[in-house]
Amino acid sequence: MKIMYAIYPTVSFIAFLVADSAIGAPPPDPLPYYLYQLFTEAPPSSLPDILSMSDRDAADGFVHLARAINILPLAMKNYNYTVQLWALKLDYQWMIRNRYDVKWE
After folding, report:
1. For 45-103, how does the pLDDT look when each residue is reduced to its tens digit (9 = 90+)?
2. What DSSP element (H or E) covers 97?
3. 91 touches 9 (CB < 8 A)
4. Are 33 and 64 in contact (CB under 8 A)?
5. What is the pTM of this model?
6. Most buried by CB count within 10 Å: which residue of 6, 45, 63, 72?
């Protein structure tokens, strides 16, 4: 499965989310302005229109995104032995305005 990305000038790209397997929960209040996608390898310097999902995202059936407050705990829990960790900043408010299907868990 591949995930589509749309070019967005201030963020580089925004993910179209596939969230069939996510456990539903109410969104946080207040809503964040940005969400972050974590990578263990540097994203390509010239971002393609389509990026493959990570093995973890593909296995779970959706793209994992985090709020800024969750990045450190998430990194410590899931990426404890990773030498480098990259965080891609995504404009969540833009995603809302463009009706992206984001599920919270």
Report:
1. 777 777 777 888 888 888 889 999 998 888 888 888 888 888 888 899 988 999 888 88
2. helix 92-97
3. no
4. no
5. 0.71
6. 63
DSSP 32-96: PSEEEEEESSPPPSS--SEEEPPHHHHHHTS---B-HHHHHHHHHHH-TT-S--EEEEEEHHHHH
The pLDDT tens digits for 1-58 are 233 333 333 443 434 444 444 557 888 889 999 999 888 887 777 777 777 778 888 8
Distance CA 88, CA 84 (A): 13
CA angle 82–77–103, rounded 5-degree value: 110
As beta bridge partners, residue 98 has none
Residue 52 token pair: 């493959």
